[in-house]
Each structure stands twice: as C-alpha cells, then as structure tokens.
Specification:
It catalyses: thiamine + H2O = 5-(2-hydroxyethyl)-4-methylthiazole + 4-amino-5-hydroxymethyl-2-methylpyrimidine + H(+); 4-amino-5-aminomethyl-2-methylpyrimidine + H2O = 4-amino-5-hydroxymethyl-2-methylpyrimidine + NH4(+). The structure is a single chain. The chain is mainly α. It has a single domain (22-222), classed as Heme Oxygenase, Chain A, CATH 1.20.910. The chain contains 11 helices and no strands.
C-alpha cells in the first residue's frame, strides 16, 4: 500500500482499511483493472466506465457539498466545498478530454441512463449525506477517494507503457490526488475520534457498503451492465 495508509493503527481509517482489505484486494485484482493495467481493456468497456463515472461524479459532488454543510469546523467546510468543486468541475473536465479521445459525444452521454450500480451507489451517497451525521457521511465518501488512490498507484507499478489509458493512470497515481486523499483520511479520523460507539459502528457500515459498491461499479463496467428490463 502507498503512504496514504500510513496512519496510526488506533485510528478509524486503519481499522476500516484492515476490516475491508479483502474487498480492496478483490478490486485490485479484478479483470477490469488487470486489463486496464496491461492496456488490453476494450474500448467498449472503458467507454461504459467513463460515461457511468461522469454520472456518478455529479452525485459524489453533491455528497461532498452536503458534507461541507455539516462540517463541524470551518476547515472542514472549506475542505469539502473545494472537494465538491474538484469532483464536478476538474474531474469532469478530465472526462471531457476522455470523451473527446474515445469518441463519446455529449448526445451519447445525455441519452445514456445510469446503470443499476451507478444508480444504487449515487443514491446511497445522497441518502447517507442527508440522513447521517457528519462522521458517517465522511466514512461513506472516503472509499471513493482512498481506493482510487491505491488502485492508481498499484496500476502505475505494473502498467504496460505506452498504455491507451495512461492519462487515467497518471491522474489517480499522481501526488496531487494522493495529497487530497491523505487530507480526507485525516479529517475522517478526527471526526471519528469524538464519535460515540453507535456512530463509529455506523461509520464502519457506511465505509464497507461504499467499498462494496466500488467493486460493483468496476464489475458493472466489465460486464457492460444495463437495466435487465
């Protein structure tokens, strides 16, 4: 694992990472990420993934904005308001570049519905953000940051170069993204340190569910999943 996981063993993040490590390992070794690393991932699968990820980022940005509103100090408000901006503006500009590179027009994106998994994950984040206290909201948002950082670094270490997906790999393996992830981990740990046992338990449930949904999201793209009826 990268230095993003180098936190005290007594923290929420360390406990959550250890408890859900089998799911992370399942993500790391799943066919989608193996094929992305060796450059053999089909264009059809990557296009499916990118379109669904662009849909997801809208919900992720809303979840971050709600986290900012619920923040228990001004630093958290600024941190997650800025993160919401990054999710919606900066990362969607990356998607725009990918869309152009891989031939996805705005009409195709607008007429492509959320897949079942993208719909589930998006609604899980929004519902959690509205209904749960600040520490639980952070726990639900954390896996998207942390797992992408770890997968990015893992793929970078074994990627075939040149790779048609070099830009994706470099984005999530880059130090700028990892610095932001370390900050989110630290904020989540601070929120957890003052949480009641009940809230801590709910944090672990939210973290685990989001981690499972990360696996399902990549698996859905691998299977080119759509609504069955």
């Amino acid at each position: 694992m990268s230095d993003a996981t180098s936190f005290s063993a007594s923290t929420f993040s360390a406990h959550a990472w250890g408890r859900d490590l089998p799911t992370y390992e399942a993500i790391r070794t799943m066919p989608f990420n193996d094929a992305l690393a060796d450059g053999t991932l089909s264009l059809e699968r990557f296009r499916h993934y990118m379109v669904q990820d662009a849909h997801y980022l809208i919900a992720f940005g809303r979840g971050l904005a709600i986290a900012a509103a619920k923040a228990d100090d001004p630093d958290g408000l600024v941190q997650f308001a800025e993160a919401a901006k990054v999710a919606v503006v900066v990362e969607r500009s990356l998607h725009a570049d990918f869309f152009e590179t891989f031939g996805i027009g705005p009409e195709e994106f607008s007429r492509t519905e959320m897949s079942p998994v993208c719909h589930h994950y998006s609604n899980f984040l929004i519902a959690t953000a509205y209904a749960e206290p600040y520490p639980v909201v952070l726990a639900a948002l954390l896996p998207c940051f942390w797992i992408y950082a770890e997968i990015g670094r893992d793929i970078l270490g074994r990627a075939a170069r040149p790779n048609p997906y070099d830009a994706w790999i470099d984005t999530y393996a880059g130090e700028e993204f990892h610095e932001a992830v370390r900050a989110v981990i630290a904020t989540t740990d601070r929120a957890a340190s003052g949480a009641s046992p009940d809230v801590l338990a709910r944090m672990h449930v939210a973290y685990r569910r989001a981690t499972q949904l990360e696996w399902m999201f990549w698996d859905s793209a691998w299977r080119l999943a759509d609504w069955p009826v």
